[in-house]
Amino acid sequence: MSDEQPDAGTADRIRFEVRNQVAWLTIDSPDRGNALTPAMRDRLGGLLRGLNGRFEARAAVITAVGDRHFCTGADLSAPRPPAPRPEGAPQPAVGEARRMMLDGQLTLMPSVLDCEIPVVAAVNGTAAGIGAHLALCCDLVLMADHARFVEVFARRGLVPDGLGAWILPRLVGLQKAKEMVFLAEDVPAEEALRLGLCNRVVPGDDLLDAATEWAERLASGPTRSFMLSKWLLNRSLDLDRRSLEDNEAWAVELNNGTEDAKEGVASFLERREPTWRGF
User: What CATH class has 8-219?
Assistant: First the structure.
């Protein structure tokens, strides 16, 4: 029995290239609102995980083709045939939706959060549902001035998935997160900036230039310092103070052994600009 996904041919709608030590991951399905099929989702997550422990890329950008949609969520039209089942078994059986989530969206978002290099979202248009969560899980978020976030789930009678209930309260607080989820109203770019959902809003024509500037700046920085800082910050709201103290002490211990940490101290003492090598 083949385990190839029926939509496997859509995986190539995730474009990937490395330029100037920046990995560019581009969703290229504008005819479907840049919605993610399971194959596209899996390729995107796999590419992000593949950046860990390597040196070719020291920062990453996630963006999409066109100026209308960043990602409108999961492509609900993509085929999802049920697993083989004995005669008389219900469809779907209890547990199948849970397994689909654990093997699907709940692998994609951790691949962004756990990526060892900084990940920048360049939101070129509407980011809805898991498309919004994909952007919000990135370390830095740039938005075109016409872009918007939409917690679209309530409009379809659905529950937020793709770690939305985890990331939203951390960014905007519990009450605002409930408002966004329950009312499912569009959040335009300027409002997203005010709420802390993005770092900067730029004219649409300037989005890729701004993303390039930030990503290449990050790619020329102290990569292992960024990795350990990201690890500390992403865990900070889930740990008690004593546990974070231990984590911080280990992060400093590990970072002190990097060549970039030595270069940082040397450049300070020698009163010159540092040259970061990424290890």
Answer: alpha beta
